[in-house]
Protein: Receptor ligand binding region domain-containing protein
Organism: Tegillarca granosa
Amino acid sequence: MAQNKGTVWNNVTSILSPGSGYSSALQLQKNIAEHSPIITQANHKARSGYHVIIGPFYENLAMIFENISLPYIVTDYIGFDWIDSSLIRNDIKWKTLVELLPSAFEVNRAVVDLFVSKEWSSVVVILPDDSKVNQVCQDLIMQMIKRRISPIAFNIDTTGNLDNQTADVLRNTQQLAQTRILICSPRDETHNLINTTLNEAQNFGLLEKEDYVIFALDTIRYVLSMILNHLLAAIDYIMET
């Protein structure tokens, strides 16, 4: 959440970065350029002391901010403790909202488009058995089914022994003669499903086989190490404009 104590948006003096999320200075430049009314709205809110809110998406907050014309820069479609599914499959055109990330729906659609272009008709999908994040993976599975791709889903209990579970999945993958594996782990810094699966795949010798294709889908991977630098770069850009 950012607070501006000056009179215009480019005088932002303090910022609290969210616990999760992503922002890119280049993407922010593009989005700001495409949403010039955001700057006008920010300046209009000078008297209140707040010009812009920066943080993960929550629909109730988006509704409030739109009602009072307060700009809302969304750094992540996943909130701190739970996921707001309304931003995954949502056609609402928010007037005061700027997204720094492609939506989960768009990322999933890009994955499905790749499968269609390669004429791949099936895939093993490994996902965490966690309702807080599974809406992202379930949306991907539904998009695949609609495009006549057959996902074979394996839910992993991330509170149990990951090595044994992923090894069982890979054995089943070989028995099913599947050569495409997609690891959907939208909160992998918590679940560690991607590294575990890749390590087990290496033990099985799958990484050396040219006919195997393994995808790791984590839309915020490496974010925690980059977010502060990217946010500061974005703020520098705003202050220079």
User: Anything to note?
Assistant: The chain has two domains: 2-101+224-240, 104-217. Residues 1-29, 222-226 have pLDDT under 50 and may be disordered. Residues 104-217 form a domain with the Rossmann fold fold (CATH 3.40.50.2300).
